[in-house]
Amino acid sequence: MSLVVPSFDMSAMADYAHDWALVDVETSGLMARRDRVLSVAVVTMGPDGEQTGEFSTLVDPGCDPGPVDVHGLTRERLSGAPAFGQIAGRLGAMLQDRVLVAHNAQFDYDFLAHEFARARLHLPVTRRLCTLALNRQVDPPTRDMKLGSLAAHYGVPRTRAHDALDDTRVLAGIFRATLREAARLDLPLPFVTCPPRQDPQFAPQPPKTPCAYRNPGRMEPGGRLVQGMKIALTGQTATSRAELVARSVAAGLNVMSSVSGHTSVLVTNEPASVSAKARRAAAEGVPVIDEHAFLRLLGAVRSGTPHQAAPPNSRSVPVVPAPRNTPPALPAVPTPGTPLAGRRVLVLGGSHEAASAARARIVELGGSAAVNLSRSVTDVVRLADGHADRRLPKIAGLGLPVHDEAWLAAPASAAPPSSEGAERADAPRPVPPLVLPRGGVVDLPVSSPGAELFTWRATASWASRGRCAVDVVAFVLDEDEQVTFDEDFVFYGAPENPAGTVRLLTDGPAEQSFDLSLGALPPASRRIVVAAAVDGDATFGEVGAVQIAVSPGHGAAPLARATLDAATTERTLILAEFYRRGPVWRFRAVGQGYDYGLDALARGYGVDVES
Fold this sequence. Notes:
Layout: E1 20-27, E2 37-45, E3 51-58, H1 68-71, H2 75-78, H3 84-95, E4 99-102, H4 105-118, E5 127-130, H5 131-138, H6 147-154, H7 164-185, E6 191-193, E7 230-233, H8 241-250, E8 254-255, E9 265-267, H9 276-284, E10 288-289, H10 291-298, E11 344-348, H11 352-364, E12 368-370, E13 379-382, H12 392-398, E14 402-403, E15 434-435, E16 441-443, E17 456-462, E18 470-477, E19 489-490, E20 502-508, E21 511-516, E22 527-534, H13 540-543, E23 546-551, E24 560-564, E25 572-581, E26 584-594, H14 598-604
Parallel strand pairs: 1-4, 4-5, 7-8, 7-9, 9-10, 11-12, 11-13, 13-14, 15-24
Antiparallel strand pairs: 1-2, 2-3, 5-6, 16-26, 17-21, 17-23, 18-19, 18-22, 20-21, 22-25, 23-24, 25-26
Helix pairs in contact: 5-7, 6-7
């Protein structure tokens, strides 16, 4: 098949010349550990951008095909199709030694990984690339980043949406055009090493029923157990661990797999134990009892206080500590206004404090502060040492205006320059996201019954710096600002909570996202905190600004975004929070940094991180 987007020789550009395998799967649902592949297509492409192969097939999943109204694959159409195990060998040969490319690539990768595992075969993929993440870096002037919108923008014909082969052919055309744009902007490709952090060994366990009672706190010496108490067990026990857990849960207790300052009691037959739980209990002053005493107390557990849903007219707003280090402000504009409305400004050079102050000023003037060079950048501010930034030649080639720091004191109001290569005049124009300042809040709209069940996506991105590895995490908290159970701490080692309502996606070395099914969370879940932590001894002063954006699902245009800076020494940064206000969920950009690491933040929310 000849693709409309002309091929161009990438073999001379080492960073963009690879063997590629572009993939699309249609599935019976959205959860790879539960649902099945119904059809799969692969288009292979060489380093020169030329197509080298193609394969597609329907797959008999041996189960209900799910939403037929979406993919059109009925039981009758799938009857007689091969099982996945029958085509896995051919698929594997096409994927071998190639970079897997897909739109929302973790979705396709996870489904293939689970299907290969069911067939007891190894998925031969060592790296993947997400075209959705790549286009977020390029940031073309489209109304959203969905496949259809990108196809229209890049001039790639699309005949059958949700057909795996047609979608893969379309993806190939989009990918070639996007690679050209990435090369023009000198953007690093967002490769993800596989198996990624969403590794099958971390597949969630069957949904765990949250404890129905609030944590009443520590058990008093000689006192009784109370429903809702957080219980941890360590060491050998005479009664099987499974039975102890089952009896504890039946009594209304909350069994945790770690110890924190919120643990009510630790059960152990070895008071001198040096286990991690015992050490943490001693450090936190958590009461310790033996198995015999625990079993006796289990026979007379006192009634606890049930979790309550947020009051319908509640107007409470979670309190976030005020920043300890506020960046110095630039000179104020004499007259109020928004002279930078519609502009997206990239800051180069300067100390972290100076760059942070410049970005805050951009937002104050109605603009949006960028963290990377992209198609949407309209202006560049060059601070001290900014002349050494390697992107300046590209910026000059793109014709972007470059200003000094004084420009931010009183920039002239002007319409932002039009984007080169914008869409046709009759195409829908992108709606700019709401730019939130630090502490800014926006209600997440509910447009129709059941719309609250949509999945919201929170995406954090930053400038890629080789020394600074950043992890993005989430805590699902109850009304007492605690995780209900350990699995409500979602991070790279446990990238999905048991119900699948909060899920981490790794889209590249400088971008991570959370998919949040807010409407499916239990009433006790009042708030979700999204935070970032720097590995090792590096600080956010070295990482620089982090952008957080919230969108109604993958590929959708952002509803709102914020560019956040911590002060120089912080190692942990609370990026944002989702919280209930009556029947509505709200999103707030936080930007609060702390000098301590992720382990201390996690313990504050009731879960211990083993080092």
